[in-house]
Amino acid sequence: MVNNLIIGNDYDGDVDANPSTTTTLGELVEQRYSRRQMMGGMSAMTTAAFGASLLAGCGESDDKADVITVTDGTTVQTQGGRVVTLTSSATANAATTAWTQVGGPTVALQTSGNSVSFVAPNVTTTTNIVLQFTASNGTGSSSERSTVVVSPATLAFAAVAKNKNDIVTVPSGYTVSVLYRAGDPIASGVAAFANDGTDTNYAQRAGDNHDGMSYFGLAASGNTPDASNNTRGLLAINHEYINPGYMHVGAPTTTTDANGVARRPEAEVLKEIEAHGVSVVEVARAGNTGAWSYVPNSALNRRVTPNTPVAFSGPVKGDAMLRTVYSKDGTTGRGTINNCANGALPWGDYATCEENWAGYFARASTDASVRTATGNAKQVTSLSRYGVGTNSRYGWQTVAATDPTSTIFSRWNASAVAANAADGTADFRNEPFTFGWVVEIDPYNPASTPRKRTALGRMAHEGVMAGRMVAGVKPAFYMGDDGRNEYIYKFVSATAWSTADATPTDRLATGDKYLDTGTLYVAKFNADGTGQWLPLVFGQNGLDANNTRYPFASQADVLANARLAGDALGATPMDRPEWTAVNPVNGEMYCTLTNNSNRRGVASSSSQRSIDAANPRSYVDTRTDGGTSTGNANGHVVRLREANDSTESTSFTWDVYAFGARSTADANNVNLSGLDDTNDFSSPDGLWFGLPTNAGGQASPLLFVQTDDGAYTDVTNCMMLIGMPGRVGDGTTRTVTSSFGGTATATARVGAAPGAKLKRFLVGPKECEITGITSTADGRSIFINVQHPGEDGDYANITSHWPQSQATGTGTGRPRAATVVITKNDGGVVGL
């Protein structure tokens, strides 16, 4: 059926030859509408009065060019996240056609001729979106409406099977492309990466072992921000650590000098140092559906390495504990290291987090006695609590620099030298206190100086995730401290959020506003499903000079020793708190607890912890190859709901979203979430919610869970799952009995079994970790990092050839960490 619209002022039949006095149709119309109004609305009016057959007859005029035909509207069914395309038609004499939305939640329309496309939003209940197609020739128009019935989204992909292939495996209907690999050049004049150990100048190449990551949209041209641009942007990417066995021509070397001192060679160590830190690199897509690539010569490309100048900000800035040879006033420092997880700050900056930095330093055997003799005995307690010992991870401090004035190697020797001033300005005894912070970077300004935000505390920061930003409410930033039996924290700004600050002209100054003043809290989980945020405030609750274990001298001292402050307040030791993520719809915070080999039914040493309600499992996980893992071998994901759903609250309720386990594990005491072959996992690590700017972050937001596992690798490589979680309290309580380290029971608060609302979406290549995730605003391009493929091998025994193997599953080259981009072949939102 078609609708015909008659256009024009003169046409055959416009003469009244009937002498009857009966009112004509035209007279009736003119009594209600003007001539021009009639021309624009006659189609719908006539159809309503007489049906389509009469209107079709009216179209049979001699002046065929005056007739515009528009197809009828339609009704179609879809679900959130799917691409909808509608096509209508009009006769050739239509001068213009247009699609407009006239009903339902607003969607972004993309028109091409007489077709229109949009991505359906996610919804909580079936919702109609109404579009109107209009054709006109300047004097009149005809239109028809179509209704798109949108149902709530589901995880509409087939779960990927567990596997040990040397590729990134995704569901049918998706495409994986390798985007940015370790060693890729990011400046003009830098040679292509040879990947044979001879490459140098990592200060202008992608670093090693990509980790946390965020996407920042760029305007179509120029270097200005545009968060909504889905085809051009910047990726800020952490480079956590290195794989020395693949980085050099052969094994890392050590020589002995004339005095019998073991030394690492300068060139090797410089390469290792520069491969740490952060990349900021421009990426672009060819049109709306083409391939992604990075821009090697972009003016915005940047590396922040351990040698990059940084500034301290917040309460610890200028404190005596930050004074070194490099910065005698304790206000500046150099670089960032062991950058694991991250956060995209609400004003457009990148937050990178310093995790296991302590292992980069070495202290002489005399260090403790020197500090004690000079009145700094409590520093010995602090360094021990944070794990700064006598041996370093890579031996960087042993280099004898060619330039005698250079301190880029000697800074990793944290020994207090007796002959030097006790304030630390003559050596690097205080250098460990310059690490362990959240670092803010302006990705859009490569000339800017990164700032270490000391108000957020010092620890093995895994990540920092902003809670929901509500105008007039003080925002919170959630953090995990990645260590066995460490704590979960949040920082609440002293400044209430202003929406005007979402797009500031000076992003780092906005960071000053929200991150330099506020209160740091540590979490205590109670057995009854409640919890408290305990304030880390000097002078309160024993955080003062009278503390017998560590006498706190100031708020700066409390923040720099957040672990010791958490100990003093009785915070709950957790099973390695890692990434945090916040549900953009309801504000609930999730935190991955990767695993804990020191969890016992009943603790028998100071390094162990007994099971409790928030960490209720201790068991033996038996591998198919005969090996075993013990304690909480597979980890879990805890979640909490703030009182009154407010970031300012100091109390919360909590439960466990999902317990990692083999699908075949004991359902009563281990596989508490009822996982099966489509969703069983181990050692959750990376964690991220879809963005509220697309269906993946609306109604029932997608939760992406990534793994860094050593317990389940007998069966599968590491993976990423996608879930659609419910709410805190949607499950039940279970009594769990420990089967390892003494018999004990705990009452676990278990969320509703995930079932089909949690599926395995991706499996990585051999011996990798899947980590780091971000997306474009529309959710149609997802960026994922693959870290340390082939980590069990080296130059002489290459155990993975990824990403070379991505195309065929095989290869010959050394493995490289890399960023991949995943798109859905039909252009929809990834995961839906």
Topology:
Blueprint: E1 2-6, H1 25-32, H2 35-50, H3 52-58, E2 67-71, E3 75-79, E4 83-87, E5 96-103, E6 110-112, E7 115-119, E8 127-136, E9 141-151, E10 174-181, E11 210-217, E12 232-239, H4 244-247, E13 255-256, E14 262-263, H5 266-274, E15 277-285, E16 292-294, E17 302-304, E18 309-313, E19 332-334, E20 339-344, E21 350-354, H6 367-373, H7 377-386, E22 438-441, E23 451-453, E24 465-466, E25 476-480, E26 484-486, E27 488-493, H8 507-515, E28 518-525, E29 530-535, H9 555-560, H10 562-569, E30 574-575, E31 577-582, E32 589-593, E33 599-600, E34 609-610, E35 619-622, E36 628-631, E37 636-642, E38 651-659, E39 684-689, E40 703-707, E41 719-723, E42 732-737, E43 745-750, E44 758-763, E45 769-775, E46 781-787, E47 818-824
Parallel strand pairs: 3-9, 18-23, 33-34
Antiparallel strand pairs: 1-2, 4-7, 5-8, 6-7, 8-9, 10-47, 11-12, 12-15, 13-14, 15-16, 15-17, 18-19, 20-21, 21-22, 22-23, 24-25, 25-27, 26-30, 27-28, 28-29, 29-38, 31-32, 32-37, 35-36, 37-38, 39-40, 40-41, 41-44, 42-43, 45-46, 46-47
Helix pairs in contact: 2-3, 6-7
Protein name: Phosphatase
Region (Disordered): 599-637
Biased composition (Polar residues): 599-610
